[in-house]
Structures are given as structure tokens and as C-alpha cells.
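Worked Example 4.2. Read the sequence first, then its C-alpha cells.
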Amino acid sequence: MNQLHKTITLAQGVGLLVTTMMGTGVFVLPQLTVQDAGFAALLAWLLLILAMLPVTWVFAELGKRFPHAGGPSHIVSKAFGETQGKIIGLLFLLLVPVGAPAAIEITMQFAQALVPLNNIQMLIVELVFIAGLLILNWRGVQASGRIQTGLTLTMVVVVLAVSLSQFSNQTVMPIPAFDYSQWPLLASAAGLAFWSFMGIETMSHLSAEFKNPERDFGRALLIGVAVVGLIYLICTWTILQATPGFNTLAMVDVFDQQFGQGGRWVIGVLGIFSGAATVNVYLASTARLAFSLSEQGALPNYLSRLNQHGVPSNGLITTCALTALVLVIAQMIKIPFESLVRWTNGVFVLIYIFTMVSAYKLLSGTFKIVAFFGATVCLLLGISLGASMSYALFLWVSLVLFYTIIRMTIRRAKSTAY
């Protein structure tokens, strides 16, 4: 049987997770949540961070006990059988039509801030972007892990420098008392902000490639969530304290106000690289999930082949090709990336719910209680997304019906044979 290489260290794991979670959202999501909920966005971020800690704890424990390229798909299959596991795995694969374009569309906001591009030029840049990530992943995720660890440190330094400079150079605006009539706005902001925590699930597909998953995987997740939560809170506070400028990206205005002109280049370059980090892990984890599902017989055997570096190369090529195709279609349809973000969040919330319920069945003691709380948190997040959950529910119902029809067809064929 093919074996994935164990190459990821704790530092590389933290780098992969933090840059994935900060990724395309670190300079954009705080601004969008402030537009949604004003000062209530701070409370939305704080509550979301606290709510995600038990979810992260459960994912960490599952990754230590059941390291596997299938991630939640493997966990659900152990709890509820192979069919349900395959449905969750395919659900993740079907994220690509909305998740990858959403991440790349956000990344291109930073590219546009540097060099204005028309639609055709933008599409060419996006396709070259995908080709570059294919090359980066060809030798395995340890190379991108080293790069992303350095990128994480750079982004943290920039965000802290901007925030500390703003704090020391101007009067801090007091935070008004929370008005309970703002709960709907807070829920909407939290549903949008959930995009920033999706790397937890994505990283679970790489748990089998940690050198010491039992020791390092859980630590990488918890450290990553703590760092990312703090950075997003700081960015949200910084935007709330800033004087409105003229740029589309508020963080560019904040940088310019504190350090003079040049903010669009600093924020733009970091935004492009962090966006590349997010899409990079998207592609790597999806290729490995395709590899896992192929070995289970849910996808063609073609996707289970590994190259000389232990990378599921056919799955990687197929994932990149599908992403490129979707980018072309997305350019034609012109769907706002905010809608794509919410649809993607809906699918992830559904995957998280199934994972938490599976963890409740598989784990014992304290972890069973934590898994129950995590499932409740995910259910509340699903409610906060409202109609945006429709895409996720449509996919899940379609897959359940598909497998139900297959089972009925097999049974009918067997009864006819007898």
C-alpha cells in the first residue's frame, strides 16, 4: 500500500495552520465584519475564538488518535461506516467549486491594489498562480511549511507594528456598550468570520504526515488558533480605531496613516503571499483526500498514485485543473466573493458538525463532553449563516440520495440474480 511521507515538524505545522487561517482573510475579514456589525464585530470575534477552542481541542485529539489523510472523512467512517465517511469526503471535495475561487478572488484584491488588471489579465494571473502552487507542492508540503513559517512571522510583525503605532500615536476611541438589539448583526459577522478558522479541518488531512502526530499535531492546532485569534482581534480593533481613507482595503489606509505612503505595497505583497498560502493548503489537502478516497474505492484508482516524493501527484494535478476550470467559470458568472465565502463556510460548518458528532461517539470521558459542546457551537454557527447554508445542505442531500440509489440498485440486482 502507498504510504505518505512523515516530514512535518511542529514549527512547520504551526506555520501551515496560521498562514492558512490568516491567509486571504487577515487583511479583509476584519473589515467585512466591521461593515456588518460595527463595534459589535469585536465581540463577534471574541466569542467565535472562545467557541472554536473546544472544537480545536477535539480535532487535535482526533488527529493524535486517528492520523489519516482522510481527515474528517476517516473519522466519520470510523463512527458511522464507510458510506457516511465517503459522503463527508466528497462534501469536502465539492467545496472546491466555491472555496478555491473565493480564496483566489480575495487574493486578487491585493493584486489589484498593486497593479490594476482587466478581466482577461486577471484570469491569466490566476492561472499562473495555480501553476506556481502545483510546482511548489510537487515535492511535498514540508517545503511550503518552511516558507509559510517565515511568512507567518512577517505578517505578525507587520500587524503588531501597525497596531502599536496607532495605539501610541492617537487617542484611543472608547468601545461603546453592547446593545442587545445588535445580536443579529453579531451573528452575521460571526458567520462570516468563521472563514478564518477553516484551516483546522484542512490541516487534519495532513496529520498523517507529521513526524510525531501524537505529540505535535494537537500542539500545532492549539498554538495556531491562539495566534490567529489574537491577530484577528488586533486587526479588527485597529480598523475600528482608524480614520476612514480612500482605498478599498482599510488596512492599506491604516498603514499609510501610521508610516506614510507605501501601505498598498506592504499590505498588497503580504496579502498575495498569505492568499497563496491558503490556496496552497487547499490544494494539498484536497489532493490527499482524493488519494484517501481513491484507496477506499470511492474515486478512481488513478488518484491513488504517488510520485517519487510521496506526493499524490495525480490528485494534485486533477485538483489544480479543476480549480483552474472553476476560475474560468467564476470569471464569467461574476459572483461576489462574500457570497462564496458564506457558502464555503456553510459546507465547513456541516463537516464540523458531523466530525463533532463522530468524536462524541468515538471518544470518552472529558472529550465526549467537549465534543458535545463543539457540536452545539457548530450548529449555532450554521443557524447564524441562515440561507447561506442552502448550498451545503443541497450537496449533502444530493450525496445521500446518490448513495441510497446505488444501494437500492445493488440490492435489486442481487434479488433479480437469485
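Now turn to a second chain, presented in exactly the same format:
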Amino acid sequence: MAIENLMVTLHRLPEIKAVVDTGTDLVTLFGFVLTAIAVIVGALYNSHTFKVSVESQERVAEGSARLLRDQGRAEAIAVSRQQWINSLRDEISHFLSLGYDVHTLAQFINDTSWVSNVKTAQFEKNKELYDLRYTDFSKKVALARFHFAKVELFLNPKEPESAELISAMSEYINAAVAYRSVQDIGDRTVAISQKILKKEWEKVKRME
């Protein structure tokens, strides 16, 4: 009996487990690693987002600057073209007005019977008046040709309408000097001028 009890007792010995204390809390360590990873990932994400945002803002700013440059260039061209239109219109107006004055004076310059077919006393007076009119006539012809030359510089002679206007203006001043009818030629000059000015004005409107 004693031996059997002893054997039973030996078979029921408690299980012995070894517990090793490493001094490290694995749960805490794992949490720290996760936190570090989260911080790094967050920093990388924020850096990427910031970079994308900056690049986007730079593109927007560059696009806005380009748009402003294009608008500024278009506005400058439109203003320059408007000044060109105003100047051309003024030069043509001055030319036509002077041509009318030349035509009026040409009556007395081309027909000298009012000077020669008079008595000696009246002849001297008429000749003095003729000289004054001739001086005025010459000045106005020169000034008309000056404005005519400026109009030529404004235009491109290779363009049909510009060539037509130059031709009409030349015919107008030559007729005025010779004291021929200028009414129809003047009307044609105005009509061609209006056509050119309208076309240029439409270009300016498209630039705005």
C-alpha cells in the first residue's frame, strides 16, 4: 500500500512553468511603434499634401499672370489701334477740308481775267489781291499734301481699300487745284474712309 500511494503521489506532481521577466512591456512597445509609424505617415502625407497645394497655387498664379499679361497686351493693342483710327480720321478730315479751300481759291488762280482785263489802277489792286490769294492757295495746297502724305503712312498700299483711298485722295486734290468739280470725288473718298475705319473699329471691339 505504501508503495502504491507513493506512485500515485508522484504521478500527480504539479506542472512547473518557467516565467522569465525580461523587463520589457511588449504591449507598450507595440503601441509606441504604431504611434511612431502613424506620426511618420502623417508627416509624409502632410508634406505631400502641402507640396501638391503649393504646386497647385503656383499653377493658378502662373495662369492668372499669363491671363493678365494677355489681357494687358490685348488692351494695349486695342488702345493703340483706337488711336490709329482717331489719327487717320483726323488726317482725312483735315485733308478734305483743305481740299475744299484749295478748290475755292483755285477759281481765282486758274482764271486771271479778273486781274488782266481791267484798267491800270484797278489792275494793281487786283494783282495785289491775286498775290495774297496765290500765297494762301500755295500754303493750303502744301498743307493738304502734308495730310495726304500722313494718310499714306497710316495705310498699307497693298490692301485694296487702302490703295483705293489713296487714289481717290490724289484725284481729289488734283481736281481741287485745277478747279474741277470735287463733290463726287470727295463723297467717294469719305465712303472709302468710312469702310476702312469701320473695319478697323470692329477689330478693336474684338480685342476688348
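Notes for the reader: The helical segments are 2-11, 26-110, 113-116, 120-154, 160-177, 183-207. The radius of gyration is 50 Å.
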